[in-house]
Amino acid sequence: MKPKLGTFTLVLISLANMIGGIFLVPAAMASIGSIALWGWVWTFIGVMGLAYVFARLSRDYYHKGGILSQSGEVFGLSVEFILTLSYWFTCLVGNAATVITATAGIAYFFPNLNEPLYALMTNLFVLWLCIWVVYRGLYFAALVEVVVAIVMIAAIIFVICIGLPSFKMMQ
Question: Using CB atoms within 10 A of its CB, is residue 149 exposed (0-12), middle (13-18) or buried (19+)?
Answer without folding.
Answer: buried
